[in-house]
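Quick one, T. Sequence first:
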Amino acid sequence: MDSSGHFVVSLDFELYWGRFEKLGSRRADQYYQNTLDNIPRVLELFDRYGIRATWATVGMLMAENPQEWRSYMPEELPMYRQSKFSAYAWYLSHPFPSKYLFAPQQVAMIASAPGQELASHTFSHYYTCEPGQEVQQFRADLRAARKIASDKFGVELTSLVFPRNQVNFQYLPICKEEGFTCVRSNPRDWYWQDTYRENYLKKAFRTADTLFPIGGRSSFKLESLKVMDTTMPLQLPASRFFRPNHPDRGILNHWRLSRIVLEMTRAARFGETYHLWWHPHNFGHHPAENLKDLEALLNHYQFLKEHFGMESRNMGDFVGNGQKEQEGKLVTKENTCPE
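C-alpha coordinates:
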Protein backbone atom coordinates (compact mmCIF):
# COMPACT_ATOMS: atom_id res chain seq x y z
CA MET A 1 0.00 0.00 0.00
CA ASP A 2 1.08 3.58 -0.62
CA SER A 3 1.57 6.16 2.12
CA SER A 4 -1.54 8.21 1.24
CA GLY A 5 -4.39 8.35 3.69
CA HIS A 6 -7.38 6.09 3.09
CA PHE A 7 -11.08 6.69 3.64
CA VAL A 8 -12.93 3.41 4.23
CA VAL A 9 -16.72 3.10 4.36
CA SER A 10 -18.63 0.00 5.47
CA LEU A 11 -22.38 -0.38 5.95
CA ASP A 12 -24.22 -3.12 7.86
CA PHE A 13 -27.28 -3.90 5.70
CA GLU A 14 -29.73 -5.91 7.78
CA LEU A 15 -33.19 -4.32 7.91
CA TYR A 16 -35.35 -6.09 10.53
CA TRP A 17 -33.05 -9.12 10.79
CA GLY A 18 -30.71 -7.00 12.87
CA ARG A 19 -33.32 -5.77 15.34
CA PHE A 20 -35.92 -8.51 15.80
CA GLU A 21 -34.95 -9.61 19.32
CA LYS A 22 -35.26 -6.02 20.53
CA LEU A 23 -38.49 -5.08 18.76
CA GLY A 24 -40.45 -8.34 18.48
CA SER A 25 -43.28 -7.82 16.01
CA ARG A 26 -43.42 -4.02 16.26
CA ARG A 27 -43.96 -2.41 12.88
CA ALA A 28 -42.22 0.64 11.50
CA ASP A 29 -43.23 0.50 7.85
CA GLN A 30 -42.23 4.03 6.86
CA TYR A 31 -38.87 3.66 8.59
CA TYR A 32 -37.97 0.56 6.57
CA GLN A 33 -39.49 1.91 3.38
CA ASN A 34 -37.26 4.97 3.74
CA THR A 35 -34.31 2.64 4.27
CA LEU A 36 -35.01 0.79 1.03
CA ASP A 37 -35.66 4.02 -0.88
CA ASN A 38 -32.35 5.44 0.35
CA ILE A 39 -30.20 2.64 -1.09
CA PRO A 40 -30.13 4.02 -4.68
CA ARG A 41 -29.68 7.55 -3.32
CA VAL A 42 -26.64 6.53 -1.28
CA LEU A 43 -25.24 4.62 -4.26
CA GLU A 44 -25.68 7.71 -6.41
CA LEU A 45 -23.77 9.82 -3.88
CA PHE A 46 -20.99 7.23 -3.72
CA ASP A 47 -20.74 7.23 -7.51
CA ARG A 48 -20.71 11.03 -7.70
CA TYR A 49 -17.92 11.38 -5.14
CA GLY A 50 -15.90 8.32 -6.14
CA ILE A 51 -16.54 6.33 -2.95
CA ARG A 52 -15.70 2.64 -2.82
CA ALA A 53 -17.73 1.06 -0.01
CA THR A 54 -18.34 -2.33 1.59
CA TRP A 55 -21.96 -3.40 2.10
CA ALA A 56 -21.95 -6.14 4.74
CA THR A 57 -25.32 -7.75 4.04
CA VAL A 58 -27.30 -10.32 6.02
CA GLY A 59 -27.62 -13.35 3.73
CA MET A 60 -31.32 -13.75 4.48
CA LEU A 61 -31.94 -10.33 2.89
CA MET A 62 -30.78 -11.74 -0.45
CA ALA A 63 -33.69 -14.18 -0.71
CA GLU A 64 -36.71 -13.34 -2.85
CA ASN A 65 -39.32 -14.67 -0.43
CA PRO A 66 -39.79 -17.02 2.55
CA GLN A 67 -39.70 -20.08 0.31
CA GLU A 68 -36.32 -19.19 -1.15
CA TRP A 69 -35.07 -18.21 2.31
CA ARG A 70 -35.91 -21.67 3.59
CA SER A 71 -34.11 -23.31 0.67
CA TYR A 72 -30.81 -21.68 1.74
CA MET A 73 -31.16 -22.34 5.48
CA PRO A 74 -28.16 -24.30 6.74
CA GLU A 75 -28.71 -27.78 8.15
CA GLU A 76 -27.14 -26.73 11.45
CA LEU A 77 -28.84 -23.74 13.04
CA PRO A 78 -27.43 -21.68 15.94
CA MET A 79 -28.62 -23.24 19.20
CA TYR A 80 -28.53 -20.18 21.45
CA ARG A 81 -29.40 -20.80 25.08
CA GLN A 82 -31.81 -17.89 24.75
CA SER A 83 -33.95 -18.66 21.73
CA LYS A 84 -34.89 -14.97 21.39
CA PHE A 85 -31.57 -14.45 19.58
CA SER A 86 -32.44 -16.91 16.81
CA ALA A 87 -33.72 -15.33 13.61
CA TYR A 88 -35.28 -18.67 12.69
CA ALA A 89 -37.26 -18.98 15.93
CA TRP A 90 -38.36 -15.34 15.71
CA TYR A 91 -39.61 -15.59 12.12
CA LEU A 92 -41.66 -18.69 12.84
CA SER A 93 -43.42 -17.05 15.79
CA HIS A 94 -43.84 -13.43 14.65
CA PRO A 95 -45.83 -12.38 11.58
CA PHE A 96 -43.94 -9.65 9.75
CA PRO A 97 -44.09 -8.23 6.19
CA SER A 98 -41.62 -9.92 3.86
CA LYS A 99 -41.10 -6.53 2.25
CA TYR A 100 -38.84 -5.52 5.16
CA LEU A 101 -37.06 -8.86 5.45
CA PHE A 102 -36.06 -9.58 1.87
CA ALA A 103 -34.44 -7.03 -0.45
CA PRO A 104 -32.86 -8.81 -3.44
CA GLN A 105 -33.48 -5.85 -5.76
CA GLN A 106 -31.48 -3.52 -3.54
CA VAL A 107 -28.74 -6.12 -3.11
CA ALA A 108 -28.54 -6.44 -6.90
CA MET A 109 -28.12 -2.65 -7.17
CA ILE A 110 -25.22 -2.79 -4.74
CA ALA A 111 -23.55 -5.78 -6.39
CA SER A 112 -23.64 -4.12 -9.82
CA ALA A 113 -22.54 -0.62 -8.75
CA PRO A 114 -18.93 0.36 -9.55
CA GLY A 115 -16.57 0.21 -6.58
CA GLN A 116 -19.15 -1.31 -4.23
CA GLU A 117 -18.20 -4.53 -2.45
CA LEU A 118 -20.97 -6.93 -1.52
CA ALA A 119 -19.80 -8.48 1.75
CA SER A 120 -21.29 -10.61 4.52
CA HIS A 121 -22.99 -9.77 7.79
CA THR A 122 -23.42 -13.56 8.21
CA PHE A 123 -26.48 -15.40 6.90
CA SER A 124 -28.72 -15.07 9.97
CA HIS A 125 -27.23 -12.09 11.83
CA TYR A 126 -25.25 -14.66 13.81
CA TYR A 127 -24.01 -13.81 17.32
CA THR A 128 -20.62 -15.44 17.78
CA CYS A 129 -20.38 -14.68 21.51
CA GLU A 130 -23.85 -15.78 22.53
CA PRO A 131 -23.82 -18.90 24.76
CA GLY A 132 -25.12 -22.10 23.18
CA GLN A 133 -23.96 -21.63 19.59
CA GLU A 134 -20.95 -23.64 18.42
CA VAL A 135 -18.20 -23.49 15.82
CA GLN A 136 -19.82 -25.91 13.37
CA GLN A 137 -23.03 -23.88 13.46
CA PHE A 138 -21.09 -20.72 12.65
CA ARG A 139 -19.32 -22.46 9.78
CA ALA A 140 -22.66 -23.63 8.38
CA ASP A 141 -24.00 -20.08 8.59
CA LEU A 142 -21.03 -18.65 6.66
CA ARG A 143 -21.41 -21.30 3.97
CA ALA A 144 -25.09 -20.43 3.57
CA ALA A 145 -24.20 -16.73 3.23
CA ARG A 146 -21.60 -17.41 0.56
CA LYS A 147 -23.86 -19.79 -1.35
CA ILE A 148 -26.82 -17.43 -1.69
CA ALA A 149 -24.53 -14.56 -2.77
CA SER A 150 -22.84 -16.77 -5.36
CA ASP A 151 -26.02 -18.36 -6.69
CA LYS A 152 -28.09 -15.18 -6.96
CA PHE A 153 -25.55 -12.45 -7.67
CA GLY A 154 -22.43 -14.25 -8.88
CA VAL A 155 -20.39 -12.77 -6.00
CA GLU A 156 -17.79 -14.66 -3.96
CA LEU A 157 -17.94 -12.97 -0.57
CA THR A 158 -14.51 -12.25 0.96
CA SER A 159 -15.17 -9.55 3.58
CA LEU A 160 -17.15 -10.02 6.79
CA VAL A 161 -18.62 -7.82 9.52
CA PHE A 162 -19.66 -9.55 12.75
CA PRO A 163 -23.21 -8.70 13.91
CA ARG A 164 -23.34 -6.47 17.00
CA ASN A 165 -19.56 -6.15 16.59
CA GLN A 166 -19.12 -9.46 18.43
CA VAL A 167 -15.64 -10.21 17.08
CA ASN A 168 -14.87 -13.67 18.42
CA PHE A 169 -11.10 -14.05 18.06
CA GLN A 170 -11.37 -17.84 18.25
CA TYR A 171 -13.64 -17.88 15.18
CA LEU A 172 -11.31 -15.93 12.91
CA PRO A 173 -9.56 -19.05 11.51
CA ILE A 174 -13.02 -20.41 10.58
CA CYS A 175 -13.66 -17.21 8.64
CA LYS A 176 -10.43 -17.64 6.70
CA GLU A 177 -11.13 -21.32 6.01
CA GLU A 178 -14.53 -20.37 4.58
CA GLY A 179 -13.08 -17.78 2.22
CA PHE A 180 -13.25 -14.55 4.24
CA THR A 181 -9.93 -12.75 4.01
CA CYS A 182 -10.88 -9.46 5.70
CA VAL A 183 -13.03 -8.72 8.75
CA ARG A 184 -13.96 -5.49 10.46
CA SER A 185 -12.68 -5.29 14.01
CA ASN A 186 -13.59 -2.81 16.73
CA PRO A 187 -11.98 0.48 17.80
CA ARG A 188 -9.27 0.01 20.40
CA ASP A 189 -11.02 1.98 23.15
CA TRP A 190 -12.17 -0.05 26.17
CA TYR A 191 -15.82 0.84 25.65
CA TRP A 192 -15.76 -0.90 22.25
CA GLN A 193 -14.28 -4.13 23.60
CA ASP A 194 -16.24 -7.24 24.60
CA THR A 195 -19.43 -5.94 23.00
CA TYR A 196 -21.37 -9.00 24.15
CA ARG A 197 -21.03 -7.55 27.67
CA GLU A 198 -22.93 -4.31 27.27
CA ASN A 199 -23.69 -1.86 30.05
CA TYR A 200 -24.83 1.73 30.42
CA LEU A 201 -21.31 2.99 31.13
CA LYS A 202 -19.98 1.70 27.81
CA LYS A 203 -22.95 3.14 25.95
CA ALA A 204 -22.52 6.50 27.68
CA PHE A 205 -18.83 6.69 26.77
CA ARG A 206 -19.51 5.71 23.14
CA THR A 207 -22.17 8.41 22.89
CA ALA A 208 -19.95 11.03 24.51
CA ASP A 209 -17.06 10.12 22.21
CA THR A 210 -19.28 11.00 19.27
CA LEU A 211 -19.08 14.64 20.37
CA PHE A 212 -15.86 14.96 22.39
CA PRO A 213 -12.38 13.41 22.04
CA ILE A 214 -12.42 11.13 25.07
CA GLY A 215 -11.06 8.04 23.32
CA GLY A 216 -7.83 7.19 21.57
CA ARG A 217 -6.79 8.12 18.06
CA SER A 218 -9.49 6.97 15.67
CA SER A 219 -7.39 6.62 12.50
CA PHE A 220 -4.50 4.20 12.16
CA LYS A 221 -1.42 3.37 10.13
CA LEU A 222 -1.78 0.22 8.07
CA GLU A 223 1.53 -1.03 9.43
CA SER A 224 0.01 -1.03 12.93
CA LEU A 225 -2.12 -4.01 11.94
CA LYS A 226 -1.01 -7.59 11.88
CA VAL A 227 -2.04 -10.84 10.29
CA MET A 228 -0.65 -13.25 12.85
CA ASP A 229 -0.36 -16.13 10.37
CA THR A 230 -1.84 -17.31 7.11
CA THR A 231 -4.81 -18.90 8.89
CA MET A 232 -6.14 -15.49 9.95
CA PRO A 233 -7.99 -12.84 7.94
CA LEU A 234 -6.90 -9.22 7.92
CA GLN A 235 -8.56 -7.35 10.80
CA LEU A 236 -9.45 -3.82 9.69
CA PRO A 237 -10.53 -1.67 12.67
CA ALA A 238 -13.53 0.62 12.59
CA SER A 239 -12.84 4.26 13.42
CA ARG A 240 -16.22 5.89 13.94
CA PHE A 241 -19.90 4.97 13.90
CA PHE A 242 -21.77 7.58 11.84
CA ARG A 243 -24.68 8.34 14.15
CA PRO A 244 -27.85 9.62 12.48
CA ASN A 245 -29.13 13.16 12.41
CA HIS A 246 -31.90 14.13 14.84
CA PRO A 247 -33.24 17.60 13.99
CA ASP A 248 -34.29 18.27 17.58
CA ARG A 249 -30.69 17.98 18.78
CA GLY A 250 -29.60 21.27 17.27
CA ILE A 251 -25.93 22.08 17.84
CA LEU A 252 -25.15 18.46 18.76
CA ASN A 253 -25.69 17.48 15.13
CA HIS A 254 -23.07 20.02 14.11
CA TRP A 255 -20.59 18.81 16.73
CA ARG A 256 -21.11 15.20 15.59
CA LEU A 257 -20.24 16.08 11.99
CA SER A 258 -17.37 18.37 12.96
CA ARG A 259 -15.77 15.57 14.96
CA ILE A 260 -15.78 13.26 11.93
CA VAL A 261 -14.45 16.02 9.67
CA LEU A 262 -11.55 16.69 12.04
CA GLU A 263 -10.74 12.99 12.31
CA MET A 264 -10.82 12.55 8.53
CA THR A 265 -8.54 15.56 8.10
CA ARG A 266 -6.01 14.26 10.60
CA ALA A 267 -5.97 10.87 8.87
CA ALA A 268 -5.37 12.50 5.49
CA ARG A 269 -2.58 14.74 6.79
CA PHE A 270 -0.69 11.88 8.43
CA GLY A 271 -1.28 9.25 5.77
CA GLU A 272 -3.54 7.15 7.99
CA THR A 273 -6.69 5.10 7.42
CA TYR A 274 -10.09 6.27 8.65
CA HIS A 275 -12.96 3.74 8.69
CA LEU A 276 -16.51 5.10 8.94
CA TRP A 277 -19.49 2.74 9.33
CA TRP A 278 -23.25 2.79 9.85
CA HIS A 279 -26.44 0.87 9.06
CA PRO A 280 -28.60 1.92 6.09
CA HIS A 281 -31.59 1.87 8.45
CA ASN A 282 -29.93 4.63 10.51
CA PHE A 283 -31.17 6.95 7.76
CA GLY A 284 -34.74 5.60 8.11
CA HIS A 285 -35.81 8.61 10.17
CA HIS A 286 -35.19 12.07 8.69
CA PRO A 287 -33.70 10.69 5.44
CA ALA A 288 -33.27 14.11 3.79
CA GLU A 289 -31.22 15.45 6.70
CA ASN A 290 -29.11 12.31 6.91
CA LEU A 291 -28.37 12.23 3.19
CA LYS A 292 -27.39 15.89 3.38
CA ASP A 293 -24.97 15.10 6.22
CA LEU A 294 -23.51 12.20 4.25
CA GLU A 295 -22.95 14.41 1.23
CA ALA A 296 -21.20 16.98 3.42
CA LEU A 297 -18.73 14.30 4.56
CA LEU A 298 -18.20 13.03 1.03
CA ASN A 299 -17.59 16.57 -0.17
CA HIS A 300 -14.96 16.90 2.56
CA TYR A 301 -13.40 13.66 1.36
CA GLN A 302 -13.08 15.23 -2.10
CA PHE A 303 -11.27 18.18 -0.53
CA LEU A 304 -8.87 15.82 1.27
CA LYS A 305 -8.31 13.85 -1.91
CA GLU A 306 -7.37 17.00 -3.82
CA HIS A 307 -5.13 18.48 -1.12
CA PHE A 308 -3.59 15.42 0.58
CA GLY A 309 -4.08 12.57 -1.89
CA MET A 310 -6.52 10.68 0.34
CA GLU A 311 -8.01 7.68 -1.43
CA SER A 312 -11.28 5.81 -1.05
CA ARG A 313 -11.03 2.07 -0.34
CA ASN A 314 -13.50 -0.67 0.47
CA MET A 315 -12.53 -3.48 2.82
CA GLY A 316 -11.75 -5.90 0.03
CA ASP A 317 -9.21 -3.50 -1.46
CA PHE A 318 -6.87 -4.17 1.47
CA VAL A 319 -6.72 -7.93 0.96
CA GLY A 320 -3.65 -9.34 -0.73
CA ASN A 321 -0.76 -6.91 -0.44
CA GLY A 322 -2.05 -5.74 2.96
CA GLN A 323 -1.71 -9.17 4.52
CA LYS A 324 1.75 -9.71 3.11
CA GLU A 325 3.07 -6.31 4.16
CA GLN A 326 1.87 -6.50 7.73
CA GLU A 327 3.45 -9.71 9.00
CA GLY A 328 5.65 -9.18 12.05
CA LYS A 329 4.01 -5.91 13.06
CA LEU A 330 2.11 -4.90 16.17
CA VAL A 331 -0.81 -7.05 17.30
CA THR A 332 -4.05 -5.20 18.04
CA LYS A 333 -6.29 -6.23 20.94
CA GLU A 334 -9.29 -8.33 19.94
CA ASN A 335 -12.42 -9.45 21.72
CA THR A 336 -12.61 -12.93 23.13
CA CYS A 337 -15.84 -14.58 24.19
CA PRO A 338 -16.73 -16.85 27.09
CA GLU A 339 -16.56 -20.60 26.70
